[in-house]
Design brief:
- The complex is a heterodimer of chains A (355) and B (352).
- Chain A is an alpha/beta fold.
- Helix content of chain A is 35%, strand content 21%.
- Chain A is globular and about 65 Å long.
- Chain B folds into 2 domains: 79 residues, no CATH class; 220 residues, MetI-like (MetI-like fold, Orthogonal Bundle), CATH 1.10.3720.10.
- Helix content of chain B is 70%, strand content 3%.
- Chain B has 13 helices and 2 strands, in the order ααααββααααααααα.
- A two-stranded antiparallel sheet of chain B has the order 1-2.
- The longest helix of chain B is centred in the N-terminal third of the chain and has 37 residues.
- Classes of the chains: A alpha/beta (355), B mainly alpha (352).
Chain lengths: 355, 352
Amino acid sequence: MTTPTVETRGVPAPAGVPYLDVQDLQVHFTTDDGVVKSVDGLSFHVERGKTLGIVGESGSGKSVTSMAVMGLHTASNAHISGSIKLDGEELVGADQEEVRHLRGKKMAMIFQDPLSSMHPFYTVGKQIIEAYQIHNKVSKKAARAHAIDMLDRVGIPEPSQRVDAYPHQFSGGMRQRAMIAMSLSCDPELLIADEPTTALDVTVQAQILDLLRDLQKEFNSSIVIITHDLGVVAEVADDIMVMYAGRAAEYGSAEQLFNNPEHPYTWGLLGSMPRFDKAPTARLLPIKGTPPSLIRVPAGCAFNPRCDFQERVGSACLVDRPDLIDGGDEHFVACHIPTAERQKIWAQEISPRIS
Amino acid sequence: MAGPPGFWEAGHPAENLVSYIIRRLFAAVGLVIVISMITFAIFYLIPRFAGATPESMAARYVSRNPTAAQLHATAQALGFYDPIYVQYFDWLKGVVLGKDVVVGSSVDHCPAPCLGYSFRTSQPVLPEILRRFPVTLSLAVGAAIIWLIMGISIGVLSALKKGSVFDRFAMTLALAGVSLPIFWTGLVSLSLFSYGLGWTPPGGSYTPLSENPLAWAHALLLPWITLALLFSAQYARLTRAGMLETMGEDYIRTARAKGLPERTVVVKHGLRSALTPIVTIFGLDFGLLIGGAILTEVVFGLPGLGQLAIKSTLANDLPPVLAVVLVTAVFVAVCNLIVDLTYAVLDPRVRV
């Protein structure tokens, strides 16, 4: 095994071109209070048929990342740099009209709240037909048949009648299914799901995740699932990236992140997860403090004010921003604690308390 | 049996709609009656509070230097000695059933919607209203088309280019448009375009549409623009505010995520939502205008309902005033009903 190389520019793509390849993405917003560095040097990739889970607290830059991939930052104050390659095609700096033609066709998005994300004045069918007809020159009749077929495929009963219903006439779960049907209407190869289950009942959440998994098999699409809920990514993700303050804190396979997490922030997230298999007397281990302001990100490691282990490392955490380094097996961690030490802390101190 | 209810069963949407319209029509009739009562009371009571007697009021309607007997007879004929509610019901009965009126030596029958006879000219009011109504309608419809097109397009552009030079310029202009009174803009434009440049005919030259459409439009052009200026300013501000709100909605982001062209996103998804409150305001504004755009009609000398209302008010001629108020009230009520029905078409969430 070679020694871990310092990778300042992020994670190198493995053999075989990934469908979505993001390198050193930066999304900054100029505001009256200063520059908001919502995403500040982020790299990840997703292969065909695979699922990447992006996890982090509110304001960690997850949604901003997904909007950047979709080319949906229309505000004149958004500055995007780095590289976003979709199927080998560069999207950053590309012609807006070209990116628009890719939207909905090659990459589609599912949003958090299906009620507010669907137009209240148009029937569900009309909205699906609209999505299909932009990218496919077909008759209204054929598009309608396709919409009914899509509704059927996402498990909506009596699709030929429900196609004429309005979003407010659907239940929350059915609405999200309709939203998924709309996103999948042009067979996109990349599906970005931004908190797809957050607004839903727990029972419905599981159904929607099942549905996404089934559809992924059927369409062989890549999925990026963005969530603050580790339970969701545990369910569906092949790889997981934990984001903090616009950067990746830890990035690896789902197995690595759940069985051998190495970043103190990931430990915190795992410790904050309520679980049924623990005695009710056992307390959650929440992360202290709140996420930092993205205008004035703490110097050094952005997580240092909230980290329980900062004293053990010393001043490096306060001064140097840790790079995302491969600790072997493509398990990347951005932390100043030496790899061996991290593994020891997890095994001896954290793991017994939370699992 | 399960399944959707049939057409004549209770709970069918069409039946709900019919009963809704009937209920609203009853409410509208009630509203019109109350408004006519208030108008009636104002015109009958206020002169009495000011110390007028039936004879002194009758003095306005007879020849110069009348005798006491003449005054008494006139006051009697006009019903000034009756208690107010009797006078009101007389009038209301005339509106609903029509009535016979003694004019001089002959008895005249005034058919069903009898709006009475002018105190001044002794002519029946209804033909006068019918003659003037097309003028006011022409003015209102033409102005409405102009202000809707101008107001909405300026509002949309302003919202899309928020903070730009165009936005600031348009909004400053809109503020000016709202603040400038019609008698100022009307007179200035009349003196400039009509008397100065000679592009439009002078005030007071109205030609009915049926006689000469070109002359009709030519004469109304300036009044339309003057009236539209006031309203389009208001509608531009409304549209801008509505668009700024809707363009931030989640469903706009969804529309963009589908890959829709920006124009479709703005018009089909953004403007569609922003239009609903504008429709509401438009119904009210248009209903009121049908009752007469008093200032515009007076400034441009248009023989419409507004001019009739102001002339009759100044002459203390109650029947025409009551008639105009009645027409206005009916149109405001009808326009409101249409707005509410349109609302259900525009916003499916309002439907049951």
